[in-house]
Amino acid sequence: MRQRVPLLSAALVATALAALPGCAGPSPLRGAPAASAPGQSRAPQDFSRQVDVGGGRRLWLSCRGSGSPTVVLESGLHDSSDTWTLTDTRPPVPASPAVFPGVAAFARVCTYDRPGTVRHTQPPALTTRSTPQTGTRSLAAMAGDLDRVLTAGRVPGPYLLVGHSFGGMITRLYAQRHPRNTAGLVFVDAFGTNMRPYFGARWPAYVKLLNDPGTPFDADPGFEKADIDGAVAAVRAAGPLPRVPMAVLSKTEPFAAPPGSPKDLLAPLEHAWPAVQQALVELGEQTPHLLATGSDHYVQVHDPDLTISAIRLVAGRIRAGR
């Protein structure tokens, strides 16, 4: 069950992921968190619901657990929040909890559906839980949605932001624009700003493949598409990252790709990836770089224990620094 095309296309693997344990979807609607009376302490309620973010739009938000800092899980391009509730651990490794419930055991954790992302249901489908958007989206718009859903959902900050793949670009720009709301960062095999030179003249073809990866949803006007070049420019133009605890998790296995994938794009991608990950490590001071041995790009699915441990490590450093 390794038919995953990370970064090339998270959506293309939806059928395989739908068969994995834990893909029954988020917990039932439980309503908004209740406010505590003055002088009283009350654990926040778990909930999964649509949040009104203004402009006639709603985004699906799910939160669970208690404790600070609040952990926010950001999925990769084309992926709904489902990838944080899936696992694919195999013998002799015992079954492990998925990242979302695993983190909820020691902290408040939230995740949400960006518009046009793929639900790992059977059969796969674009999410209907968040209001659809059409056209190519900017990184600023995506980071703006993250800010809006956390604000409208009354999710307490500051946040430990966890970004997988292109989600790492979203959390990175958010942190640059909202440093006071950012307590820490974990990059899970994340996209970087230094990839283009490795592709040379093939870069436009790679960008096109990211947005039109050959899935049944490519022609759907609501399918998530991102301005990749604009995203890189936005991160470079934004202010510096806040000096907060960080960690980087990286794959060790090649990007999984179906037969017929263009080798002239896969080869430079593999060549670039170690440099991309090292550049992320160098964004912070004393940043642990954890290698997920035996995992492809979906580290949170193949090695949820390591992902949870990295989040716990950064959360501990945040608490110790207060």
Q: Provide the spatial order of strands within the biggest beta sheet.
A: 1-2-4-3-7-8-9-10
* SSE class: alpha/beta
Distance between the termini: 43 Å
Q: Tell me the Rg in angstroms.
A: 18 Å
Uncertain residue segments = 1-41
Instruction: Estimate percent helicity.
Output: 25-40%
How many helices in DSSP terms? 10
N-to-C series of helices and strands: HEEEHEEEHEHEHHHEHEHH
Q: Care to count the β-strands?
A: 10
Estimated share of beta-strand residues: 15-25%
Mean of residue pLDDT values:
87
Major sheet description: 8 strands, mixed
In short:
The protein has 10 helices and 10 strands. By secondary structure, the chain is α/β, with parallel strands linked by helices.
Question: What attributes characterize this protein structure?
Answer:
322 residues; alpha/beta; 8-stranded mixed beta sheet; two-stranded antiparallel sheet
What does this structure look like?
The protein is α/β, with parallel strands linked by helices and 322 residues long. 31% of the residues lie in helices and 16% in strands. It has ten helices and ten strands. It has helices at residues 14-18, 99-104, 139-152, 167-177, 196-199, 203-211, 228-237, 263-281, 299-302, 304-320; strands at 47-54, 57-64, 70-74, 109-112, 118-119, 125-126, 159-164, 182-188, 246-251, 289-292. The strands form two sheets. The protein has an eight-stranded mixed β-sheet with strand order 1-2-4-3-7-8-9-10, with helices on both faces. β9, α8 and β10 (289-292) form a beta-alpha-beta unit. The chain is globular and about 55 Å long. Residues 1-41 have low confidence and may be disordered.
